[in-house]
Amino acid sequence: MILGKIALFTHTIKYLRFKQILYRIWYAVFPINSVLIRTSLNKIPDHIDWSPIKSFTNFLDYDWWDKDEITQGRFQFLNDITDFGNSIQWQLSEKSRLWLYNLQYFQYLFPSEKLNSTVALGIINNWINQNPPGAENAWDPYPISLRLVNWFKYLSTVSVSDKELQPILKSTYHQAFWLEHLLEYHLLGNHLFKNAKALAFSGLFFKGSDADRWLTNGLRVLNQEIGDQILQDGGHFERSPMYHTMILEDCLDLLNITHNCHQPAMTASRQKLEAAADRMISYLVGMSHPDGEIALFNDAAFGIEHSPEDLIQYYERVTGNEVSRPDGKLWSFSETGYYVMTPKTGDRMIIDCGLVGPDYQPGHCHCDTLSFELSLNGRRVIVDSGCFEYEDGPIRQYNRGNAGHNTVTIDGENQSEVWGAHRCARRARPVYANLGEREDGWLHFDGAHDGYKRLKGRPIHHRSVRWKGDFILIDDCIEGRGNHDIESRLHIHPDLAVETNQNSVVLKDNKNQYLSISVAGEGKITVEAGWYCPEFGLKYKCPVIVSRFKRETLPFKTGWKFVIK
User: Fold this and answer.
1) Residue 464 bridge partners (DSSP)
2) Do the domain assignments include residue 346?
């Protein structure tokens, strides 16, 4: 057991970049503290540069917030409501870290109906008074990054007297100074992107030598991370549609704020941002289902970021470009590893055959290689299990593991060694992936991954998907040696009923039959209970169609036949 844990840990850290290890050690040995903040007290300038901030008038509201709820001190994050009344407890011990982070972000300053400025400024000042430099969670670099941008956005929309503004300016300046010394190089990925965005905003908001440095450093990091994190196919390199929408909004915010900003450094970054946003919006169109929401691969959930339609409209406002929404049958996003079949409007299959994420930051990866989602007639039919929470536990492991995905499991093992809340040791890698249309009209996908080569006999999972008219054929071949247990699973949307008919099942709602499913060969179908978690904090029981084969000799073939009703 101990040797197994050592091996798991070793296979996890070997992928880290040297910079990540170095900064983990550095921050442990030399933690930032309030002494550093006190050195900045006399540096706060008497004025700020309102010109770029005041031009920032077209940003997105977070319209899932209710003005009256916030006014009454009632906050809901991750589908978990707490009523604080007149006394917000910023460090509530019984809440998860992610819940407390959401409380610190201040996105609720922007409900669809404008929040009264007295209420908003009261919440801001309450935070300032109760969270001195270094307060747990509140002064972590990630919530600082989101909070700074949201405070800047809010201050651009209201008239505030100098007396009201001074304590907010003082705190904002201190937070930017703190953030500058805690950029999340130990994590990288979307965290560092958020850090850099907040520094750039801070450099535009204030004036003086510190502000110049913040802007320079923020843009330097952003220019580097845009090149690293936004792949050529337009996808974000962490392979999560949810984080893709997050970074897309960040790019659009940065583009938005450059409209009336004539600083040469910011103008030079605009071209990179425009090119990235153009690719990202096209990717988002392809990776969205007919219901208008994102796919749920890896750590992804509804209700955390803006919807695809909101982002498309924001993109069109900021850039002046109209988004093309082609009715094409096929999209190959080969760098991120997603492949999309759309034979007709309302039908869509999205298949994952890519890397689990960047090697040095796979914290949001799931075991969804060669898994897929399927929509028919405008609704989701076969679904990913989603993401319920970030705290480690049974449901987190279900969502991340093979059990939560529509793929093949060998010997009861996960294809990638996910462990803890955000760790991954050995991981599945694609062997090949191809998407095309044959002369006879069949759409086809072929791919394979090597996630199980660590097992005896070095199994390789190959999957072929063919779609024409009302037929979808899925062929699985397990290449390798020896005898192995094989399992294949399909998660069905909980709104659909599953009727068993001998060796096949029919999916239906109250009015329509959607799909008949049968298993290839001699396999038998069972229907079991699984989980569908489309939002954080929401967990629905859903039917899972399972076919199992015991101690089969490799190579072995199985598969599914779908008949669309």
Assistant:
1) 446, 475
2) yes
Q: ∠ CA 361-365-367 to the nearest 5 degrees?
A: 140
Please check whether residue 193 is in contact with residue 247, taking contact to mean a CB–CB distance below 8 angstroms.
yes
Pair of tokens at residue 126? 């309450």
Asked if residue 410 belongs to a domain, the reply is yes
pLDDT tens-digit readout, 470-523:
999 999 999 999 999 999 999 999 999 999 877 889 999 887 888 999 998 777
Q: How far apart are the first and last CA of the chain?
A: 50
Strand, helix or coil at 189?
helix
For 78-131, the pLDDT digits (tens) are 999 999 998 999 999 999 999 999 999 999 998 878 888 899 999 999 999 999
Q: What DSSP string runs through 5-22? A: HHHHHHHHHTTS-HHHHH
CATH number at residue 513: 2.70.98.70
d(CA 281, CA 236): 11
Task: Write the CB contacts of 10 (distance below 8 Å, at least 6 apart in sequence).
Answer: 425
pTM above threshold 0.85:
yes
pLDDT digits (tens, 9 = 90+) for 260-293: 677 777 777 888 999 999 999 999 999 999 999 9
Could you tell me if 260 and 327 are in contact, meaning their C-beta atoms sit under 8 angstroms apart?
Answer: no
- For 193-205, what is each residue's pLDDT tens digit? 999 999 999 998 8
The single-letter code of the amino acid at 101 is Y
Residue owning tokens 């069949």: 442
Name the domain count of the chain: 1
The residue segments making up the domain with residue 452 are 330-564
Alpha-carbon torsion 108, 110, 116, 117, what sign? Answer: positive
User: Is residue 559 in a domain?
Assistant: yes
Alpha-carbon gap, residue 182 to 315, rounded angstroms = 31
The predicted-structure confidence for 382-422, as pLDDT tens digits, reads as follows: 999 999 999 999 999 999 999 999 999 999 999 999 999 99
| Sign of the alpha-carbon dihedral angle for 155, 156, 161, 167 | positive
Confidence check: pLDDT of 333 > 90: yes
Is residue 374 a part of any domain in this protein? Answer: yes
Residue 435: burial class (beta carbons within 10 Å; 0-12, 13-18, 19+): buried
DSSP string, 282-327: HHHHHTB-TTS-B---SS--TTSS--HHHHHHHHHHHH-PPPP---
Confidence at residue 27, expressed as pLDDT on a 0 to 100 scale: 83
| Cβ(108)–Cβ(62) below 8 Å | yes
Residue at token pair 């100074």: 177
